[in-house]
Amino acid sequence: MFQHYVETKEKYPHAVLLYRVGDFFECYFQDAVTLAQELELFLTSKPVGEVGRVAMSGVPHHAWERHATLLVEKGYAVVICDQVEDAAEAAGRLVRREITRILTPGTLLEEGMLKSGRNNYLAAVVIAGEHWGLAYADISTGEFLTTQSSNSEHLTQELMRLQPAEVLIPTNAPDLGGLLRPGEKSEHLPECLPPAFCYALRSQIPFSAGEARARLLQKFKVRSLEGMGCEHLPLAVRAAGGLLQYLEETQKHNSVPLQLLRTYTITDFLIVDHQTRRNLEITQTVRDGSFHGSLLWALDRTSTAMGSRALRRWLLQPLLDIKGIRARQDTIQELVENTPLRQDLRQLLRQIYDLERLTGRAGSGTANARDLVALADSLAKLPELALLVAETRSPFLKALQKVPPVLEELAQKISAHVVETPPVHIKEGGLIRPGVNKHLDERRVLVEEDQKWIANLEVEERSRTGIQTLKVGFNKTFGYYISISRAKADQVPSNYIRKQTLTNEERYITPELKEREARILTARDDLNQMEYEIFVALREEVGQQAEVIRNLSRAVAAADVLCGLAELAVHQGYCCPEMVEGREIYVVDGRHPVVEQSLPAGFFVPNSTQLGLGGQGTGDREQGNKGNVNENFSPSLTLPLSHSPTPDLIILTGPNASGKSCYLRQVGLIQLMAQIGSFVPASFARLGICDRIFTRVGAVDDLATGQSTFMVEMNETANILNHATSRSLVLLDEIGRGTATFDGLSIAWAVAEYLATEIQARTIFATHYHELNELASLLENVANYQVTVKELPEQIIFLHQVQPGGADKSYGIEAGRLAGLPKVVIQRAKQVMGQIEKHSKIAIGLREGLQDKEE
Ligand SMILES: Nc1ncnc2c1ncn2[C@@H]1O[C@H](COP(=O)(O)OP(=O)(O)OP(=O)(O)O)[C@@H](O)[C@H]1O
């Protein structure tokens, strides 16, 4: 056995090998140490012939999934080598063992190992000079996409968006097959790849253009890649081909059903970089990384796991295309207007299980009978769904109006074949209904007769022997036996053969009983095998329909997302934003979607926003028409808060905790929500499409990379200034606080000026540097706003209202006074303040400087 173990382990040197021995999965040598350390299990040792004692640890066989999941979550690959025959069958020779499963972080399928609300992506990256290709797949749902680009920053962003569980990279590293766990460094890892992921080092061969292309053509049975859109994208093809080969290698007997490969272009979507996604708390909060308190948490009213995953995908990849956005809006609108439809739809959707993943498990041969029943029940709901939306007119609901007949037939077939509540195990019978298969039914009758005979045996033997305590029992080692208490042992008939003696009882068999037993056991094995075969055939049939089922599942998921957003819009009083071609961001009474839900109803103070109304950005700069008020702007909706008719940049001041950050994020979130097609928390909104949203929010030391607060801040700011366009939305919260006041102020000033004049990006700049308010006197497209407070002698009341004008008072000293700083300190602080203010007329200074130059 150990020789077999070593041979197997040699094939998978980089994985933890769980090797089945009786009731345990065992690990030896270094694997034993890894298993014990990572899962806090007991490390022991075992004698192995001449080798002596070797390290050993193990887990009970029924608990392997749980333990393997934990190892995979920690970034290990796990190989399962199971016994594929009964020890009894082996009758003395070595039990046959085979690799039944290879688990890596990106290739999981088992229900317990996956999070229902999010995709589990496997990605593959091919880099050639400046260019790169990226393919990714979720084998549990069948998604398979590829893309190619030449900007390495985009590659990082894309990986951060996907958060792949595992990334494959072709390399000529000597330790091919190795898996770098998150954070593990390697010289073979290209620099542009974020270290936060698991990287599998792969051979270059399957990633070569010829092999990759051939593999794709063969997998999808096509003659050209034209239909997939990547015929002329060699790096995208190479990445996708290498990914497929990895799946073939790890999935062993199971061939996972993948959807036809699709090609996409990164710049077709709103680019939200990782920092911004973090700062806007799109899928998790900054403070503790929890889902509760994130935008996704606030928006998710979906009824299915598929819908929940789709909403997450949408939020991470908002659209640029107005048509696409309007199609989603129209569907939400229809569902907002039709409350009974919305409610019935949600009710029905709740009864639909995770069709995408159930289909994946069926196709890969890992589904059990309960999975098929769940799948059939869900498919059976689709005609009801179609009927419900029969009269609808919006695109996403219309997609549900037709159910392919083949799916209805499939649902009926599964229900007709499989019992209503089947057992978990599929090799132990009890799965298939009577009437499905004649031979199965005949066998069942025979087994039942024999079972009846045995059931009667107890009654008959009791009366024949006169022993009332006589019992017929069964155990795995001896099979059926007749049990008699030892006191009555002298009364047993002569045809009884004693088999076993226990403290209080004797156990006997009879030749006739053994004959029946043999018949029953073989017939039962045959029966189980027949049931299993019928089940597997049915499962394969489902697998063959994977594409059809998944197409419809995607439509269900989209409808679910939109129905949830409609529900949210009604309950939270959202409006449908008018999406326009220009650059304006015009929001009346906007609210922060998450903070609003965390406060008691009516407590959130709405605030309006007006940005970028003056022209078309960069283009205008050249045409020199900066400053024109948009002609479409409706005066009746003009907000009271703007003194500059055309602000591109807002300097936002206000005391600590007055609501600056909240306002800033609110604007970003409203824009992002609008670009996924959602309604937004405002009473009116007219929004131009943004190409990117940038944020810079309160610096935190990046201890992991050893960068100081200030350097992190400067890197992020540089990134913004280098990439923002006049179509971008830039949200800056405190710049320059990480260094000396005057350095900081000067940088903040220059950054704001550059954004307003050179880039003309729509920007909100929240700051404690009141000096920045002077910018508005120099630049036409800069306006000052402040978050107001009401001052009482002993306290400051936060009004959370954003109003025109700059805060002219430093509330920092006031806050210090309220906090109890000694009077003399406060007094002195005020004097210093006065002195500083005297010398800091920046605008005047700059103007004079400019005049000097001209002269
Ligand atoms: N419009 C609003 N309506 C009601 N409450 C609000 C509003 N805006 C902010 N708040 C509340 O005020 C708190 C402080 O807001 P925020 O963090 O935005 O302040 P800030 O001005 O950025 O403070 P600092 O300058 O210290 O960073 C928030 O936690 C929120 O609960």
UniProtKB/TrEMBL annotation:
Region feature Disordered, mapped onto this chain: 613-632
Binding, ATP: G654, P655, N656, A657, S658, G659, K660, S661
CDD domains noted in UniProt: ABC_MutS1 (cd03284)
Pfam families xrefs: MutS_I, MutS_II, MutS_III, MutS_IV, MutS_V
A GO CC term attached to the entry: cytosol
Keyword Secreted part of the UniProt annotation: no
Domain of life: Bacteria
PANTHER family for the chain: DNA MISMATCH REPAIR PROTEIN MSH1, MITOCHONDRIAL, DNA MISMATCH REPAIR PROTEIN MUTS FAMILY MEMBER
Family the UniProt entry places it in: Belongs to the DNA mismatch repair MutS family.
Protein name as annotated: DNA mismatch repair protein MutS
Biological source species: Chlorogloeopsis fritschii PCC 6912
